[in-house]
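Exam revision sheet. Question 4 asks you to relate a sequence to its structure. Input first:
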Amino acid sequence: MLKTTRQRLEQAEARLSAALLEAERIVSSAHAKAEEIAGEAYGAVGRLKELTEAAAAIKNKIEGYGDSYIIPTYHLLDDLAEEIGYTEAGQKLKDARELSKIMVKNGQAAVCDYAEANRRSTAIRFVTDAFNGKVDSILSRAKSDNHGMLEKEIRDSFALVNVNGASFRNARVTEAYLQARLEELRWAATAQAIREQEREEQRRLREQIREEEKARREYERAIKEAAKEEQNLRKAMEKVEAQVAAASEAQRAEFEAKLAALQEQLRQAEEKNQRALSMAQQTRTGHVYVISNIGSFGEDVFKIGMTRRLEPADRIRELGDASVPFEFDVHAMIFSEDAPSLEKQLHRHFLRQQVNKVNPRKEFFRLGITDIRQELEELGVQTQWTMTAQAREYRETLQIEQQIRENPVVAAEWTRHQMEYEEVADEEVVID
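Answer key, structure tokens:
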């Protein structure tokens, strides 16, 4: 029985091989007949397909394949539309995506010249799926600043899909469906811009809250310290007053001088306490600063900002932390009872000089220091100015770089010193 089963299996495999050979012969014969009838046109269709696939493969090799596991595009854009659905852009994006779905459902996305319904439906589904696959991938990369480039990619995909679809009785995506998908792109880019603005505003508000919290803690600490200083001075004055009362004529002058000095210290402490109380109560009181960082941003680039810190220099030191290679130079530190308004006036006046034309919150301006000084003087603001940036670390760095280039001994010594510093830094991290 086992032998019979094996024989039947061998016979079946033989028949299958024969059928495959016959199928290959029929296909070959059909291709030859088609080429004989259509001539070069038939061969051109095949070559177009081969060339299109080759071009796409080369493009992928050059540009990369992107994220193969990206979340389906409809989730990304639908989530985006939902997130900012309260805005016009969010609602328009929802409407645009719904229109595209309706057009596919109603058979308005593509057309074909096949007379047979089944073939026509298959060809239409083929070009629609091909086009949507490309467009969905493109839309997944939609940002606020790449609308033009992505629109070109979608139009190119439209053209290529329709060229390939010509082999299937002119199966092609409709112009109306192309416009519907371009409308999705338009509102996706707009929605992304709105979301980016909202995120930047949230970041700014968080920074403002942190800054105000630091300022509040500084005021509270300053008030406590001033109150303690006043208390100590008053005790010292009471002691000296008792000494004055008990002193001889020769000693009286010495104690009275000491008492006068303590009274002056007490006056200053009271002023400091009052200033801290006043700044804590007046939320708009603060300092507007003008600073530069030649080593990081180059000449004639200034940051015009505002802080409510009791010690504004602390804020400048924070700005010059590890995020920039060199420390900032302070050109002006202006106390104002309405610091936000003064800062806004300066920002509006120098609007065209913004370094970042996309995000004005960066507060950097490309202009001369004399322009800022002149505008403040016209506003009636008087302050002390440092017109030339010291840029100490930057200028010293330039000197060291020159010495390293010219003197191998200096280069070796500098390298050794840096390596020792790194080792010490590593040890400190371990200890911490």
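Marking note for examiners. Strands lie at 110-111, 172-173, 286-292, 301-307, 329-336, 364-366.
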